[in-house]
Amino acid sequence: MIPFGWLIVVIALLIFPIALRGRRVATGQFCRACRFDLHGLTISEDQSKCPECGDVVVEESARRTSLRKSSFSGIVTSIVLILIASGLLIIGYSGAAPRVYAQFPDFLIVHLAMLGDDDATNELVPRLLSQPPISDSLWDHLIQNSLNAQADQDQDWEPIYGEILAIARSSQRLTETQSEHYFTNALSTEFVMRESIPMGYSEITTKFLTKPGRIHAINNDETGKIVKINVLSTKVGDAPVQAYGSNNEGMSLGTYQFSVPAQNSIWSFASSLKIEPEWSQVGSKVGDTIQVRVDYQVVIENSPYGSNPMPLGPAILSEFSITRDVVVKDPESPLVELIQDAQRSTQVCENFNISPLRVIRELDPDRQQWMPILGMTLRLKDKLETPTAFRVYVVVDGKEYEINPHAQESSKGGFYGTILSWRPDPENPEMLEQTKELIQKLSISSEAAVVFRTDPTIANSNPAIGQVIETLVMFPSVPIQLVDQYQEIWNSTNRMEWVSPDCD
What we know:
This protein has helices at about 1-20, 70-95, 95-100, 105-115, 120-130, 135-150, 160-170, 175-185, 280, 340-350, 430-445, and strands spanning about 25-30, 65-70, 185-195, 195-200, 205-210, 220-235, 240, 250-260, 270-275, 290-300, 315-330, 335-340, 350-355, 355-360, 375-380, 390-395, 400, 405-410, 420, 445-455, 465-470, 470-485. By secondary structure, it is of the alpha+beta class. It folds into three domains: about 100-185; about 185-330, Sandwich (Immunoglobulin-like), CATH 2.60.40; about 335-490, Immunoglobulin-like.
């Protein structure tokens, strides 16, 4: 309401001077003082005067070349707008907007919400969920406008559009065609691949990043759908690479639950694809540019895990062909460049914080391989300008135990919940003995050291990382927290006490 109030004030202030000046009603020569028509009067003499008021009209500044008539209706309109704006601003700043909007009819709330009025939006959402709901004609208007906004990439995406479509979908108001349009425009898929690759390298690693596009709503909502990214075929140079999987049916890069994220949240899924070029067939040499092509499809279908089925059945909603040029480098060239810069290294080190080390109290012999036995939460205090790639070690009683490595792309910083963990293979006897040894040592210790050592090869599988800073991040005294359940290792809160590194 407040933005609209000020907008109306601006419009009124623009109208008023235009209306006051008015439109042109006559042209010629007129006395500026009394507007008398000087037509036929000789005004070349030094003492020529206006016959009506007696003012000297020899100088051009004493005459005007046109007469204008103020617009009475324009003046009245501007005054009315000022009064309306004043009322809106008083209501808005007094906090009475919700009570006032609650009295407005549905059609007015709908149109105000479509214009971007936040108070109208707050009133509209519960009306969409109310019983009885708003009329079918208004619902149709909302759905069509929201779908048009979703499809128009040049139009700013507003969360209210996502909320309208999410509610329409959950209340079965979308037709099958509308559902297809909704899901088709909902996802954004990015394809990342290195710009160069050493000659003879065994694989070209690519990355698919699937995330919500024009679908954000005010509130989080499950769709009852899953998303699949299927690679159909790949080609390196003129040499096709055999289709992945059995029977040449292609390869799935993963299946993900499809939800509508809330306004201030986002989900994304990164899927890696490794293309193994037949260098004998590529026919290239160092310095050449080869072309890599990937054909893939995005499939959205009903989820077998949820309880919210949709009328849209299994469907291939989009197919893509992506082509990238890759420069062939010397076989000894590393995939990821190691940068040595003492100042930047210190900045990176000081940017890292970790949580206390969470350790399972007792190892369950029946645990699954994917269950971690220890973990910690990583936080970046500030924006990470340059990616990092680390081998991570827990040090206790002077012995180092290497846990899962960690590669981090450039980041805005301030994130919580990145879990570094160790998930040793229970089928590996040597590793199992090391696991038991580590748990036993940690269970009787109050703290341990954690060390991050840069190793650029850790980032080889991530094409979004082209260089890393050589950095040593040392946490000499990390508190140990023993937990009874494996699930507790993933627990993290914003209130945890963060441990700072020793960057000297």
